[in-house]
Amino acid sequence: MSAWRQIPDLEGRHVRLRALVRSDREALLDAFADGLEGAFTTVVPNAATIDGWFDTLEREKAAGRAFPFTVLDAEGRVSGTTRFLRMAEPHRRLEIGGTVYARRVQRTGLNTEAKRLLLTHAFEVLGCHVVQLRTDWLNARSRAAIERLGAKMDGVLRGHLVMPDGHIRDSVVYSIIASEWPGVRANLDALARRHES
Predict the structure, then answer these.
(1) Are 119 and 184 in contact (CB under 8 A)?
(2) What gap in Å lies between CA 182 and CA 194, rounded to an integer?
(3) In the prediction, which pLDDT does 1 show?
(4) pTM over 0.90
């Protein structure tokens, strides 16, 4: 089976990413219930929307366009979700996004290690030429975090999305190309060491 069809189980010292399953429903709702900073810029499932959210992800996965992951912390607690999306195997391109973490793991180094695992899989297993990341122009914290990874801003898609609250989102598109991956990998390793000390 092609690596582009099978969701991997990715594990580091502080985080594990495994295939999202419906039985994660209640644990995800619990993780998101502790308050999410900047959540207005991200679609965060709640009790009323999570089943439709799962339906959409399952359709995208079945069509070969997404690998949805459940994020577990070092203790094995469900701590959020992330995914590969807009996957295009013929072009060796995908995006990392749909990332939402419980407040308790934000700014702990978990995200740095998760991105390291995802990017390693994308470039070194799937053979991607480019990996994109997108965020809301208004989400300064997310933009700073993406730039800290070493991604370069490609541009802004103005009026790109209408968010569930009616907010019209301008999406900032970033990318990392394969030739940049060794430098980005070294940067991520340095960032991870900072969280260790």
Answers:
(1) yes
(2) 19
(3) 63
(4) yes
